């Protein structure tokens, strides 16, 4: 459900052109999927397997060869004469994806090839607060350095995926859009333009926490699952929802904002303007504040983790109550979406079982008793790198479903 | 996300066969979609528009003609010699879908053609409690009578969609399944077999309340919306979730069970085995019970509706509190899934604004303030017929996305 823009000369935008373009993309996906399943095939075999006409097939194969997504090995069978037969296969060293997570305090980058192998990852701290343009410069520099260090050429780059904090709506990637826009949308659109100008490929954008949910589903604690509820506990609380293997974006780009589900309409004020949001009970800042209120001096989330490891009873009680509150909210959402797995990530999840056990108990107690196996609640596996990996997973998912790029 | 079974001789089940079958279906969808867009086309034009080879195209067109989903008109251009050119178009009077909602107290049937026109609907009351086999007999009789009355032949029937109360899991349509099974699954599988044997076409199954959600999205109060949260208030409370135009089924077939989201873990016991479920606060039985507890004699939901219309202050207060409770739960779910619209249906929704206004207020107050337009909360439009219509919408959605039948 990630969206994409090609900034540059606008393509013909008629319905007819769009329909033909979608059809072309869908043929391309059929070809790539067939090669992924069978390994190496001749054009004749590809035509048989896909049912495409020779004209269509040859044109698409030519494009895929030019983009280095597919490679051709020419062989000559024993005793064969004339032009050697070309054998086609996916090029694992060919197509590249770059994923960038532009957080508030750091930039994370990952580079993967078309065979789903992550070939480089990196991180660069940001002096807070940084302007978006400065963060983009840092990210571009980091991509170039990682590629250099790994001896990778960025020439076969297919797309760049961008993870950003806060809500991201679909129209942000429409860089030709006219008319009124929020400051946030304008800033996000500016970033899309910057990365497109530097790398010359389509740029997709989504919320970085949502992308982390997709990364956990692709490579992490929920790999193999189709329906995943993900919550990220940092200073605040965010999340993401994956259903049928696809990231749910929502009508206004705000899906997955579990941190602002109301626990108590008369509860503590939240920075969002509401009251009693989940974040005000289980976010890192809220936990530290509550420990202090009860008389335990805690510096930050790291200090909290240490005190729980030391078995501090007051801090453990605060964490257990937070786990219970989180579990009640997650149980409600799980009753509605019936996920296969619930993943808890973010720095606060380093608290481990003292936090997760009460979450698990609440989920087991408060989801439908008719189903004896409640969804497992597990810690995340990818840590802080999830956003950048998710930005790559989003691009791959778009290719596989024929939804995006271009 | 509806699933489907063809009961009868099992098809080859290898991965290869399945992949080829999916490919064939996807070509079929490309052809049907192209005809839907362009109206009438020759085979040559279809080949140009779709990029399919002549061999593939001719084979698929032959199948579509045989199934009467597509019709051919032969014309001869002025001065043309030889065999007349065939012009192909969708057959609005051809393919038929039957939707059946097997409720606890009545059977509902709808019949629609491939052009999405509903051509007949009917209802038959059931003496409660009825056995499944008896309900199936009533449903089959009703389908036959409706077709007779409308002068429709069931010969071009494509599929039958079945809506059932309670959880429906995907494997129920796998009628060749061996091994352990719940009594519910066995009963559901028996129904699939009965309908398949009578009508000789694939039978898809889903929860009837979920299907009503899809019907409201296709034809009712949420038409045009892609992401819809639906809640049905009857004696109990059920619901359905539509995201990206597709029904969410969930990992165990239990998605949409908003009635069992926990409002208060220490609340009243619920028939599901839990405590404090939403259903125990806003279901019809709960509302009637609460009015009686406060000293107002109310017979049933109809009586409740009448008392609210008469402006009974005690009953209006009970309804307003229930609306508030429902709104808090829906706001939490809306924060997670960010729907375009929230639809409230079922007999209790006849209470109208005295119930809906407090729902709307709570949703506006408790969803993210960063988005000034909360999702609209509206009453359903299709009433009790939604389940049967949804069973048809599910089949059409399956055809359009190439997901199901066969």
TrEMBL record, chains A, B:
It comes from the Bacteria. SUPFAM superfamilies: Actin-like ATPase domain, Winged helix' DNA-binding domain. PROSITE patterns: ROK. Belongs to the ROK (NagC/XylR) family. This is Transcriptional regulator. It comes from Actinocatenispora rupis. The lineage of its organism: Bacteria, Bacillati, Actinomycetota, Actinomycetes, Micromonosporales.
């Amino acid at each position: 459900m990630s969206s994409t823009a090609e900034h540059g000369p606008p393509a013909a935008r008629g319905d007819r052109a769009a329909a033909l373009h979608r059809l072309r993309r869908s043929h391309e996906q059929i070809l790539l999927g067939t090669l992924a399943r069978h390994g190496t095939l001749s054009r004749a075999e590809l035509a048989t397997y896909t049912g495409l006409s020779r004209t269509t097939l040859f044109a698409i194969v030519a494009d895929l060869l030019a983009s280095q997504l597919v490679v051709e090995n020419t062989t000559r069978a024993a005793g064969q004469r004339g032009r050697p037969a070309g054998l086609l296969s996916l090029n694992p060293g060919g197509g590249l994806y770059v994923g960038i997570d532009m957080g508030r305090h750091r930039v994370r980058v990952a580079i993967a090839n078309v065979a789903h192998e992550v070939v480089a990852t990196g991180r660069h701290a940001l002096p807070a607060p940084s302007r978006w343009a400065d963060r983009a410069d840092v990210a571009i520099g980091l991509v170039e350095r990682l590629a250099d260090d790994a001896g990778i050429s960025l020439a076969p780059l297919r797309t760049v995926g961008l993870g950003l904090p806060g809500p991201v709506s679909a129209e942000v990637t429409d860089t030709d859009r006219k008319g009124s826009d929020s400051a946030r949308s304008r800033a996000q659109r500016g970033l899309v333009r910057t990365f497109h100008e530097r790398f010359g490929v389509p740029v997709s954008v989504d919320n970085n926490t949502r992308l982390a949910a997709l990364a956990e589903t692709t490579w992490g604690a929920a790999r193999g699952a189709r329906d995943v509820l993900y919550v990220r506990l940092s200073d605040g609380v965010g999340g993401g929802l994956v259903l049928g293997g696809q990231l749910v974006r929502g009508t206004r780009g705000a899906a997955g904002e579990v941190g602002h589900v109301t626990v108590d309409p008369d509860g503590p004020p939240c920075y969002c303007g509401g009251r009693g949001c989940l974040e005000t009970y289980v976010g890192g800042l809220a936990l530290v504040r509550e420990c202090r209120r009860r008389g335990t001096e805690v510096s930050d989330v790291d200090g909290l983790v240490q005190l729980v490891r030391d078995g501090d009873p007051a801090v453990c009680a605060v964490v257990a109550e937070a786990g219970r509150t989180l579990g009640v909210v997650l149980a409600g959402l799980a009753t509605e979406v019936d996920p296969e797995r619930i993943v808890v990530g973010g720095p606060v999840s380093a608290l481990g079982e003292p936090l997760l056990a009460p979450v698990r108990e609440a989920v087991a107690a408060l989801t439908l008793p008719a189903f004896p196996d409640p969804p497992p609640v597990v810690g995340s596996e990818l840590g802080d790198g999830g956003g950048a990996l998710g930005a790559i997973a989003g691009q791959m998912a778009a290719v596989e479903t024929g939804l995006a790029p271009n």
